[in-house]
Amino acid sequence: MLRFIFTRLSHMLIALFVITVIVFSLSHLTGSPIDALLPDDATQQQIDSLTEHLGLDRPYYVQYLTFLQNAAVGDFGDSTKWKGNTAAAVVLERLPATLKLGGLAVLISVVVAIPLGVLSAVWRGSVFDRMAGVIALLGQSFPAFWLGIILMWIFAVMLGWFPTSGYGGLSYMILPAIAMAWFQIAALTRLTRSAMLEVLDTEYVKLARVKGVNERSVIWKHAFRNAAIVPVTYFGVLAGSLLTGSVVVETVFAWPGTGLLAIDAIRGRDFPVVQSVVMFFAVFYLLANFLVDVLYAVVDPRIRFS
Amino acid sequence: MGASVLQVKNLRTVLDLATGSVPVVDDVSFDVGAGETLGIVGESGSGKSMTALSIMQVLPQPIGRIESGEILLDQTDLVGLPEEEIAKVRGRDIGMILQDPHTSLNPVFTIGNQVIEALQINNPGTPRKSLLGRVVDLLRQVNVADAERRVHAYPHQMSGGMKQRVVGAIAIAGAPKVIIADEPTTALDVTIQLQYLELLRDIQEETGTAIIFITHDLGIVAKLCHKLVVMYGGKIVESGTVADVFRAPSHPYTEALLKSVPSVDQKVDRLYAIDGQPPALSVDRKGCSFAPRCPYVRDICTHQVPQHDAGLSGADTHLAACWNMGRDR
């Protein structure tokens, strides 16, 4: 088990290394930051001195190593848009809002999709199964930004049950969380359903039945423990797409999280902040997938002992 | 051999397919007494496993159902009992061993865990800790070596033969009156097969349980069973004691099956094979289902179903369903 975790951790470090190279390269591909930092009528002397000050005259590998060294301690430079703050501080300030919203969306997805998927497999072909199929189809067809606007229109504007947008307590989070979760519910329901269908057909489920296990334990203990590996796998994707989804949904609902921050930073050509957001997203995604790998081992002893 | 523990009378099980209700078990009757072993023999698709699943009432849902007939366990009819009552019978009164040990144990639970579960069903309310000793005893009873350590093993850490022993331990955990073994040795190595059959016989001697042994291997039937029924196309074509049926096979299908078993005494160039395919599931069938493959087929065979008649051995327990019986062939 320890060895398993160690291997996964080393894989994570390799992935992280590749990501830093990509982030570093991309930021250089977008052109020299000098042009953005200095006014159009800057003299060659000003340009040269700033280039030297920022270390942009040094070879790329030296610049990369410096970037890596600073990134390791969370230093991505100072924000150019939000003056007087480091880029990392700007991102960290917005991170809780995104995690709160994303967490609620994950919670809604899991709480809705798992029972929906399991029960539609158990009652396959029933009205329940067909209804779940419709919910999944709709979820996969609605783009999140469109769904967000429609939800806002119906539940905030017409019915007045929730505030339209902005930052606040639970009532502010429900509509954006549903907009983010519905697509995930769709995918997760279908995955859980097909995994359960496969498992319900196995011999060990039959053996559990013939040895007298009651139907509820057959489904939730014997079958679901085995089918769970599929939704667990999807959890890694889920975590990642909730971050990318946050860029869209946070913009629609004016939710001041990292997604909205990324859009603002890109518009303001605030590269340090863009870089930090990308790095934070990357690390978060890696951690989520690492967690998935560990969960695998918890769920399936064949992985734990190999 | 006492009175019948399990008696199946005119059982008819159908699968509701898109094309209609297809009988997979048709007018099947047999009985098995305490300490007795009944063999059910037939090719794949002959309805032998469906008969077992009907007794346990775990037919494939939602398409499978028992249409008519009785399944009497100690004179109590199990057909039509509510699910809660049937659930009490499963594992407690009737235990079952499935075909493939590699897939019939749950991969995410330890061996001990799965045996304990079977014990808990039979002793509700007993704490798990106190059952652990019983688990080790059960595993020893089915000859699992190093049982104390093996209770903590997962199925993937054990061999097929060991796993099938564990399945056996689960089957006997409730001290059932009947054990149904559905081709329990098919997936095992030949050397392990024999050990397993001996194990079943030992268990039967110790506990006096009745065994229904489903197989396509007539060699095993000869070794293990007291009586047998031969199934074809969902129907019983011949039944009787092993001695009678082997001495005087009365249905052409039984005869063909016996001919296709290799023998050490006779050297043959080619093993006998029955021409054609077993019948496909279909809604309406006329006449004897073996007719298309039968070397003795006559006109009547193709449009009228033969009734059970005294077999060629003359014993009154020996029956066969064939239009040609007694005729010279």
TrEMBL record, chain A:
Protein name: ABC transporter permease
Pfam families assigned: BPD_transp_1 (PF00528), BPD_transp_1_N (PF19300)
Subcellular location: Cell membrane
The family this protein is said to belong to: Belongs to the binding-protein-dependent transport system permease family.
GO cellular component: plasma membrane
Membrane topology recorded in Swiss-Prot or TrEMBL: Multi-pass membrane protein
InterPro entries: BPD_transp_1_N (IPR045621), MetI-like (IPR000515)
Keyword DNA repair: no
Keyword DNA damage: no
TrEMBL record, chain B:
One of the record's GO cellular component terms: plasma membrane
PROSITE patterns linked to this entry: ABC_TRANSPORTER_2 (PS50893)
Keywords, ordered alphabetically: ATP-binding, Cell inner membrane, Cell membrane, Membrane, Nucleotide-binding, Translocase, Transport
Gene Ontology molecular function: any one: ATP binding
Membrane topology: Peripheral membrane protein
Compartments in which it is found: Cell inner membrane
GO BP, sorted A to Z: peptide transport; transmembrane transport
Entries under InterPro entries matching the protein: AAA+_ATPase (IPR003593), ABC_Ni/Peptide_Import (IPR050388), ABC_transporter-like_ATP-bd (IPR003439), Oligopep_ABC_C (IPR013563)
All residue ranges annotated as the ABC transporter domain in the record: 6-258
Coiled-coil region(s): none
Protein family per UniProt: Belongs to the ABC transporter superfamily.
Protein's recorded name: ABC transporter ATP-binding protein
Organism: Roseobacter insulae
Lineage per the UniProt record: Bacteria, Pseudomonadati, Pseudomonadota, Alphaproteobacteria, Rhodobacterales
